[in-house]
Fold this protein.
Amino acid sequence: SILLKYEEWKRMNHKMDFDDILTEAHELLMMNPNLLQTLQHRFRYVMVDEFQDTNLVQYELIKLIAAHGNLFVVGDDDQTIYSFNGARNEFILDFDEEFPDAKVVTLQENYRSDASIIGLGNEVIGRNGQRRDKTLIATKPEAEKPLYSRPSTVDEEAQWIAEEIRRLVESGYQYQDVTILHRTMSSGRAVFEELLLKEIPFTPYNQKDSLFYDNWMVKPVVDHLRLAIVPRNFSAMESILPTLFINKERGMTQIRQGETKEQSPNPLLHVTKIPGLKPFQVKSINDRISFLKMIRDHAPQQAIKRIRRDFYHRYMDAKESNIVTEQKEMIKEMLDELEGSAKRFETIASFIAFIDEMKKKYEEVYSDQHRHSDSVSLMTIHRSKGLEFPVVFLIGAIEGNLPHSSALKADHLEDKVLKDVKKSEKLEKAIEEERRLAYVAITRAKERLYISSPAYYQGETRPCSRFISDIFKTEPVKAPVKKPKADSVYISIDAWICTQPRCIAWQRIAPGESASTKECPICMGDMKPGRKEVTI
């Protein structure tokens, strides 16, 4: 009913959202042949980049506009990782069946990573069944082999990474050369905190809008802990009202009015005076007040367990319903991570003090509008596609995280949507997409790659990710390095060559160019005239 009201509101107010642009355009072209023909004549040649991210409506629009057959698409089926946005790798796999006259060109040369990193990527992705057969060839020789770590916990993992980043910077790398890739927001919690504590500059691309402890799934639990030790914390009080099924505004109005008449050591009592409350609602509020008093002296992890068990699961509908969903898996994962964080502290007060310290440091990071651009990147694997870094840390390479629990349970999740897939095939499809995620993460690295698998994660022992452990069962290989053909002929030409040590850009000097310097189009550094050997 909410969806229908939303659609009606858009029509009444002449509004469109993003998917409307696609669906309305498709409907318009289907119902208006003259317009379609005009577009086909106007756009005689159509090229689509990042074709692996195409969804069904986009593909149908492409086929309508490019019905003349002049269609050129570029993509990598091994990097189809956005199925939650409707992307389907079948569009690449079946392209030459859809267009029988199409010529398929496989670009196997990789100019980014060295041979050992490419070899690892080949080993990982080669175990997928639904893919085009190809093996990447490295143009760079083998340098540093990928390194693997098996820390005891995520906090030990984070400490190791922070120390290694320090060593890398001391050896000549810059912070901006390094990225840390994590599968989900919760799996980046520990390293996020360690970078803050060690004052290593970093940019958290996926956590800009909220600290882990301020996430909508986590914050009400943290605020119950705050109220347990400070019953007059009005901000926390407002946060927990929905868990009592009390409207925030109505509840806070009642509390403020009650405080005006008589201050209470426990202002939550004022909520019981809201007119029209049923007896069971009054009892629920009184029970919650008693509960908060009871957990005051609990260890924070134990208090969180009680909050989840006694009422929070019921509030989040993660316990009462028999339907298993991806949404509930995410809620469970976030709360498990909260417990894992709390386990380090003996008292609720010390845990809350730590959270407040993190919040303060976090706000300092984002209040500094002129913070140095030389910073470590912290992002999810999904966010990293298309990017590259000299150094990559892939963290949390364990079962239940990569592959993610939502993939391991795909055949049981009601909201795990995989188009045109039988229920029996959902698990296989989901695992293959997770393997593509691992492949994308590995191939972001240019020079150094670190992979770590914490042995203990979110309250339980976890085995190493199958995507990594499968490789250790056989002798690792490095990718073949592309070498010039024996009959290649070299000539020396005049060229602009970038002077920056980490930039390999060069350009042929055009006839008539006489300047002594020019700006590099890649790194914006200085380019100087020189000589470059090329093959013909």
